[in-house]
Amino acid sequence: MPSRSSSVTVVIPARFGSSRFPGKPLAQLMGKPLIQHVYERVQAAPGIGQVLVATDDRRISEAVQGFGGAVVLTGEPFRTGTDRVAGVARQLPGDVFVNLQGDEIALHPGLLTDLVTPFLTSGAAMGTLKRRLTSADELRNPGVVKVVTDRNGEALYFSRAPIPHVRDGKAGEPVNGLHYVHLGIYIYTRDTLLRLAGMPTGMLEEAEKLEQLRAMEQGIRIRVWETSHASLRIDTPEDLDAAAAALQKLVPC
Length: 253
What we know:
single chain, alpha/beta, Spore Coat Polysaccharide Biosynthesis Protein SpsA, Chain A, 13 strands, 30% helix, 24% strand, disordered N terminus
């Protein structure tokens, strides 16, 4: 079981290609590329040994080097961010790896702490975060992933659908304590990460386009911890204006 002294490496996968938002990691947000905001927020979190960006694009690599960040160029194609992080893990030492999506800006260092600290003493092989869902728009939005857990915090399912369905409730309205957003961050032991990357794509993963479902189909249990800390997710160019407004309110200039 990992201990608090374990080496925790945060890897931020970043692709230039995106069907909805090509070049997203380099999109400018308050005078900085998006990937810089993500990177700097991780650096502010305690207990992180190393932070680096994993990309297959030299433009992203050069941008990261430009703001003084660490970057690894991954030449081969990867199915998902998890597979890209595993590719980096094969090149580096380390007991624990965190996969933070390159479009998820943590607005408080406690967001990372809420994942890393309990994981290191849990004995879990893989973990992630959830946050209470309060918006009907988010509940219905397939771009917002939902998660359902058991009483012990083990994931039962992740979906783009509005789960769980409340048969007798008001249609499309979230229920406090029942509906949760899944955040785009994972933590794994080294062995689990490498084993997961060696597994075939599952039917559920292919259907929902959610890489964590590969683990569930193969019987890897995923522990889910709750956080109250906010984050910003950038999915489309239109999200940049809302993100800038949020950062101006919460982040000192």
